[in-house]
Design goal:
This protein has about 325 residues and is mainly alpha-helical. Helices cover about 70% and strands about 5% of the residues.
Length: about 325
């Protein structure tokens, strides 16, 4: 049972950031703007928030510092995503090129700023955020050791973000308008909906969630940030496609890829896998092989929002 608890705990560390970032991409694409820049936004959110932790970890500690860092990561990601929103919505630039530019820009800026400020590109921090056991809940048989021991508060924040996103997309007026602007922008404009504002809101929400996802990815898996989030932004795009741009599908896809990543990263701690005559390079390839296989299988049946990637012009109706 201890092996099962270990796998579930590790899966949460890898799946929750994927879930949050993929949900961010969903908000943007459902509004009609393809956000290829998720990787760069994750890097920027992680860089600024980890640097904040590095500065204030001697003054603050524990969950209060982490919550402040999450807030800063979200704000940073939202502001950085405005560059993509302006280029895509106002300038009607190619959204793939705009996103790719931000993906190239973010790690370069993060490394340059880190070296300029502290002399090295790695930003160190002390992990004071680990929760050995949640009071009361951690004592529940079976569920307690899986979800409420050896955990981080970021796991529960990720679950809360999923629930709120599901409600916002499917059960609110804003969600209806967001989907209308992504699928039929001319029709939405004809009934008085400001398509530009709705698309800006979708991209900004996407940036906020991607920035938070960048921090949530780094915290449980490392004690330093070196300008990279290991391609998680691109993997989140795969999760979004696999999940068919729907909240429930994204949830299932995120945990599928989270399990694949867990097997690749922690196989040495799982006796059954460790004893197999397979090199560690093969295990490291598992998440990316699974990504290619899954995308190949679902690409023919994928149903992206109709207007995603197509610039909207008020004069087109």
């Amino acid at each position: 049972m201890s092996i099962l608890y270990f796998i579930v705990q590790q899966t949460m560390f890898f799946a929750i950031p994927l879930l949050i970032v993929a949900l961010g991409g969903m908000f943007s694409e459902r509004s009609g703007v393809v956000n290829i820049a998720l990787e760069g936004i994750m890097v920027m959110g992680a860089f600024i928030s980890i640097f904040f932790i590095n500065i204030f970890q001697n003054t603050l500690s524990g969950q209060g510092l982490l919550l402040l860092a999450i807030l800063i990561a979200g704000v940073s990601g939202g502001i950085f995503s405005l560059l993509h929103a302006f280029a895509s919505i106002n300038l009607k630039a190619d959204q793939t090129i705009s996103g790719t530019a931000l993906n190239m820009f973010a790690p370069a800026v993060a490394i340059f700023m880190a070296r300029m400020i502290q002399g090295v590109q790695q930003i160190q921090f002390t992990d004071t955020f680990h929760i050995a056991k949640v009071p009361v809940l951690g004592d529940i048989p079976l569920i307690g050791p899986m979800f409420f021991q050896n955990c981080y508060i970021t796991t529960y924040i990720g679950v809360a973000i999923y629930i709120l996103s599901n409600i916002l997309i499917n059960n609110t007026k804003f969600g209806l308008r967001l989907r209308a602007c992504g699928e039929h922008p001319q029709a939405a404009d004809s009934v008085g909906i400001n398509v530009y504002k709705i698309r800006y809101a979708g991209v900004i929400i996407s940036g906020v969630l991607a920035g938070i996802g960048g921090l949530i990815f780094v915290i449980p898996t490392s004690t330093n940030f070196n300008g990279s989030v290991a391609g998680y932004g691109f993997l989140a795009l795969a999760v979004l496609i696999f999940g068919q741009w729907r909240t429930r599908g994204v949830l299932g896809a995120a945990f599928f890829f989270g399990i694949m990543k867990t097997l690749a990263s922690t196989y040495s701690g799982i006796p059954v896998l460790k004893d197999l005559p397979i090199s560690n390079e093969v295990y490291k390839m598992i998440p990316y092989m699974a990504t290619l296989i899954v995308l190949a299988c679902v690409s023919k049946n994928s149903q992206a929002p109709k207007a995603a990637g197509i610039p909207y012009d008020k004069g087109s109706r």
